[in-house]
Structure formats: C-alpha cells, structure tokens
Amino acid sequence: MTNSYILCFILLCLIGGQGLVKGVKGLACNWGTQSTHPLQPNIVVQLLKDNGFNKVKLFEADPGALKALGRSGIQVMVGIPNDLLAPLASSPQAAINWVQQNVSNYVSKYGVDIRYVAVGNEPFLKTYKDMYLQTTFPALKNIQAALIKAGLAKKVKVTVPLNADVYQSDSGLPSGGNFRSDIHDLMISMIKFLSDNDSPLTINIYPFLSLNADPNFPKDFAFFNGTAAPVVDGSIPYTNVFEANFDTLISALEKNGFSTMPVIIGEVGWPTDGDPSANAQYAQRFNQGLLDRIFQGQGTPRRKTPPDVYLFSLIDEDDKSTLPGNFEKHWGIFYFDGAIKYQLNMANGKSLVPAKGVRYLAKQWCVMSPDASITDPNLASSISYACSYTDCTSLGYGSSCSRLDARQNASYAFNMYYQTMDQRKGSCSFNNLSVVTNLNPSQGTCRFEIMIDLGKHETAPRSSLAGKIQTSTMGLIVVLLLIIYGAF
C-alpha cells in the first residue's frame, strides 16, 4: 500500500459507529435490550452461561437484566446513557442517587457482581458535534465520588466507552497515533483521572465500518486471517485493521505518558444483515478470528498483554436506531430469540448453544393474499405503513431478504407488522391484501419471523418516534423494490 492509502485506511478504521486475560478463563459480550420482543432476562443469563460468557456489558441499568444477573457468577459493566450525563455532571447528589439505585442496591440486595460503571456511550463521537464535551468528565468525577461515598470504589471502577475516532494518526501509521487535537487536553485530563483511580480506558473498534465506508478498502485487511499486503510500521508488519487501530491508541497513550494504562475493548464485532457486507459468512469469519485470539491470549505488536474484549453483540435488537445503517439491528451472534445464526468454535472444543425455554406466538404468518394483485393501488401505502412500525431492514439491498419477488416483499412487510403487533386480531388486515397462513413462507437466507410470546398481547409494542421515522423509510424502499419489479 502507498503511504497515502495507508493514511486513508487508518482514518477510516478510526471512525465507527471478555476476553481471556492471563489467569482468567471466560468471555465478555454486550447485552443490548432495545427489542420489541426481548428474551426474558433469566433466559439471557442462562444463554450467557451456557456459552462461556462470564462478563457482560449493559448499556443502561436495566432492572430485569440486573436482577437476573444476581449471583450468576457473571461480572457486570453497567452503563449510563448519554442523556443522563448533564444531570449527573451538574449535581453530585444526582450521582449519589444514581449509584445508590443502580449499583449499591443491586450489589447488596441481589448479589450482582458489578465491576464497572460505564459513564456515557461514545460521548465524543464527531457526529455528536460536541454535545457531551462539557458534561462527560464532570459526570465521571461525580460518579467516582459517589462510588467512594458508597464504599464501592475499590471493587467498582469507572470508565468511559469511547469510539476509536478520539485518536488519529497524521502519518497514517500506528506509531503516529495521538488524540484528536480538538479534544486532546480533555482526553489527557480524563485519562489521568482514570489512571489515578486505577480505572481502565474503554475503546470501541469496528473493522466492519472500515470496510463498509470505503469500496476500495482491502477486504482481507478487515479480517484476522486475510491475505492483504501488510502495512509495515518500522519493524512491525500489520496484517489486520484491528491490530493497527488498537496500536494507534497505544501509541497515543505512550506519547502522553500513559504507557501502562489498562485498556478494555468495549465493543467489537460484525453484523449479519442490513448491508451487502453484513452477512453471516463475514460475521463468522471475523468473530471466529477474534475468539481464536482471545482463547490464545494474543495481544498486539505494541502491547503483548491482551485486553479484555467485549464482543458486540449477544443478540439482535430490532428496536435500535438505524443510524449509521440498517445493519445496526443485526450485530448479534444470536437472533433476537437466542437462535444461532452461524456456528462458532468456542473454548475447549465447544460450539454455540441456543437459548432455552423460549416461548413463541402461534406458528402462523401474515402474507399477501393469493387473490390480491401487486398492481392494487393500496399496496404501496400498506407496505409503507407496515414498515413504519416494524423492522424491514432485511429487505434492503444486499440483505438477507433482498432476493424476494414483489409479492414476497409485501408478505415480509405484512408479517413483520403482524408479529410485532403480537398477532393481535386485525393486525393482518391491509386493505384486503393479506391473509394469515400456517405455511412458513421463509426461504433461503430470509427468515419470516414469529415473535416471542410476551404474554402481554393487550399491550401495544414499544416504538419510539425516531424508530418510526427511520423504519418508514424502509417502507419507501420496499415500495421502490416493487416498482423495480414492475408492480406499479
């Protein structure tokens, strides 16, 4: 690669959306809960244990998840959402209250093994346009003070999960790493505070986004077993973007006097749907390579001791935002219901184990009626309506259901709405265009879902306004697909 291209790939890999430490056996992962039909927390905890995960990161202090994790033997990192940073920054008492309610309470009452509090989630991301620059560090200090006051600071450490775009390399090589000039002083102050309190720095790294952002990115460089030409930095050859990215951070820490600063990889993984590069084959290849590194205790050229690595993610989340892409809903190594997407070789020759005890709605699907015509003037609006309340991202270009014909596209949209609405009476009524069937319409890579039975059929599903706006865009995409197929 030329130096200019090396610079390009390093910059791309820095833009983004437990591992086996010496003497510690186990794995870590993220457990997100933004689902219209979430698995019962106790089922998720058993899923974690069955697959060897002994560390988990939660994005917020979800009561059900925390209670289920009590006395489970699983270590917990509990997150504080960005929208709480301002009140926590402005009020030490608010921080004391948060720690009491979300840490002390679960530690003492339920025996939850909380080890970290993650203050914010990628708060310095460039796309946030400095929204959290003034509140993150004060909130961090107030939470630390609250942990001290609660007598928990020796066991529970603070950290701030940051996107890899907080550092960069002007030379295009890992050795040129330093923190972004606009936040350099803030980063140094915050890292010093973490270091003084024996707390780690947490960084999220996404090789998928590097590949996804640039059609000219050398594909094999995103994986651990690729054949792309190495990037040579002095005497060090880098054969994958993960190591190059991580060592750019290590160089930044070394330049600023923190050569021994502990680092956690808070998120790293590969999605399986919503984009041509998001598929099960690539996800299996990447995650298996990642797991093999973890099992072997492999570090990077600039830091031989491997970091804790939290795989992103355990299960899919159909209620997540589609920013920065439709793949956001599909990061799980398991589907939303704990079913296995693809097999992985785990430690000691074990394979993945699916979730146990999942209860589903009836085995029936809502599809386009055989008597309905794809030229019906109500079809387009019906599909758009269905996709405005549910997840139609699998219908996008290059996604798992992108090869469906016009009728099947409509059926997929109708069924997702029907299932999201818990198969309630009237939820398969689309201007006489749809009908309920007992024949599974799934085909190839496209799954026509049946949702988890929540036992609350009278309750409307949770959908944010933002989610409706984003998914309605998918409805328009489906309509365009129908136009391409000649339906209109």
From TrEMBL:
Q: Which Pfam families match?
A: Glyco_hydro_17, X8
* Bilayer-spanning residue ranges: none
User: Under which main EC class is this enzyme filed?
Assistant: hydrolase
Q: Which UniProt keywords apply?
A: Disulfide bond, Glycosidase, Hydrolase, Signal
InterPro entries cross-referenced by the UniProt entry:
GH, Glyco_hydro_17, Glyco_hydro_17_plant, X8
Signal peptide: which range, if any? Answer: 1-23
Q: Which SMART domains match?
A: X8 (SM00768)
Q: Does this UniProt record's set of keywords contain Mitochondrion?
A: no
Spell out the Gene3D superfamilies in the cross-references: 1.20.58.1040, Glycosidases
Domain spans labelled X8: 364-448
To which protein family does this belong?
Answer: Belongs to the glycosyl hydrolase 17 family.
Q: Could you tell me what this protein is called?
A: glucan endo-1,3-beta-D-glucosidase
